[in-house]
Amino acid sequence: MRVTMIGAGYVGLVSGACFADFGHHVTCVDKDPAKIDKLLNGVMPIYEPGLDQLVAQNVREGRLDFTLDAAAAIKEADAVFIAVGTPSRRGDGHADLTYVFAAAEEIADLMDGYTVVVTKSTVPVGTGDKVEEIIRTRRPDADFAVVSNPEFLREGAAISDFKRPDRIVVGTEDERAKQVMQELYRPLFLNETPLLFMGRRTSELTKYAGNAFLAMKITFINEIADLCEQVGANVQHVARGIGLDNRIGGKFLNAGPGYGGSCFPKDTLALVRTAQEARAPVELIETTVRVNDERKKAMAARVLEACGGDVKGKTIAVLGLTFKPNTDDMRDAPSLDILPALQAAGARVRAFDPEGMHEAAKHFSGVAFVDGPYACIDGADATVILTEWDQFRALDLDRMKQAMKAPVLVDLRNIYSPSEMKAMGFIYSSIGRP
């Protein structure tokens, strides 16, 4: 089949490359000349493990291409995916659908013959109705269907998630559109991947509900971690004890500095706004948003406490800046709250991240970026682990202790064992453990 992906960002590029790898012919369209130029030269605009090889292979085999010109790509497509950004709108937290609606207008003007228009972007309930209205108004003669097909991709594991998903959610009641979507995802039938057809509005809400539940789960275990610290319990043992209950599950039960990234913050806020307008407030999610925001802001206080209450004039080494490992995404990362708070308290901040320093440099002022974890901790008064990159999981503790001015380690991801760190002579602080 011929697929056109409007938007060559994270979702569009990963989805396009994976569809091409399934055997479809995919054209990714984007309005950013610099991005398209990079892609045409084999340079990825984002970091995602394995994406560069997947793109290169499918470009080489003629199944994947990139363009600024949407005309031919849309005209020839069996399915056109809208995979543009839906950031939080300034002022009210609603999803900004400007790019989605602009894409719908462009598709309406250019499509030829029966076309399935698929919303891949995360959008509020009812967006598909508006997209259909836009297209129908501009092209009363058009033969098309608007389908919701939300993505469930984890940054750092997106290719695996696309090719081996837990489920595929498709919102449509159009029989021809169902057949097109079944053909697009046919390679996954061998794995018996559930393909769930439902109403379009139901599909749109399913995406938000899924992300909100996971965000709530993270916030829950973080609050349990705070309780553990007060009563002398171990949150990791609690998480394992409840996670082995298959009604709960062990995923997203790792206590830490709060969730961030491109999805959870904006999607929970958008769901709250949608629910308020529908007069069906989601108070659990409202609390989740508030508690998570407060948690990220409070993490700097843990560093101050580990340093005796004062970091003025001290050098604080920070390992990890992105919101999670295996990505260069800085959106709503806890570091965006923690580092400025440390600087405001008088600390000199030195930082290293394996992939995120280029993006991080756009957000921080006065932070010294260095090459490698040991260069970061050399002479530091304290080290903070903010992101659990693999290379931080097995640091040479002897070398680390000798390199630091003071052996203070604040482990906000619970990578190391408190007993081991105590035996090594570190002043060690972690999350929810005695």
Topology of this structure?
Elements: E1 2-6, H1 10-21, E2 25-29, H2 33-40, H3 51-60, E3 64-67, H4 70-75, E4 79-82, H5 98-110, E5 115-119, H6 127-138, E6 144-148, H7 158-163, E7 168-171, H8 175-184, E8 195-198, H9 200-231, H10 235-243, H11 264-277, H12 283-306, E9 315-319, H13 335-344, E10 348-352, H14 357-360, E11 368-369, H15 373-377, E12 382-385, H16 397-403, E13 408-411, H17 418-423, E14 427-429
Parallel strand pairs: 1-2, 1-4, 2-3, 4-5, 5-6, 7-8, 9-10, 9-12, 10-11, 12-13, 13-14
Structural class: alpha/beta
Supply Rg: 23 Å
Biggest sheet overview: 6 strands, parallel
Residue share in helices?
40-55%
- Count of DSSP-assigned helices: 17
List low-pLDDT spans: none
Mean pLDDT across residues: 96
CATH superfamily of the largest domain: NAD(P)-binding Rossmann-like Domain
CATH class of the largest domain: Alpha Beta
Kindly, what is the distance between the CA atoms of the first and last residues, rounded to a whole number of angstroms? Answer: 57 Å
Enter the CATH topology name of the largest domain.
Rossmann fold
Proportion of residues in extended strands = 5-15%
Strand order of the largest sheet: 3-2-1-4-5-6
Shape: globular
Number of individual domains: 3
DSSP strand tally: 14
CATH architecture of the largest domain: 3-Layer(aba) Sandwich
Explain how this protein is built.
With 434 residues, the chain is an alpha/beta fold. It folds into three domains: 196 residues, NAD(P)-binding Rossmann-like Domain (Rossmann fold); 78 residues, N-(1-d-carboxylethyl)-l-norvaline Dehydrogenase, domain 2; 131 residues, 3-Layer(aba) Sandwich (Rossmann fold), CATH 3.40.50.720. 43% of the residues lie in helices and 14% in strands. It has 17 helices and 14 strands. The strands form three sheets. Strands 3-2-1-4-5-6 form a six-stranded parallel β-sheet, sandwiched between helices. Helix 1 crosses helix 3 and helix 11 runs antiparallel to helix 12.
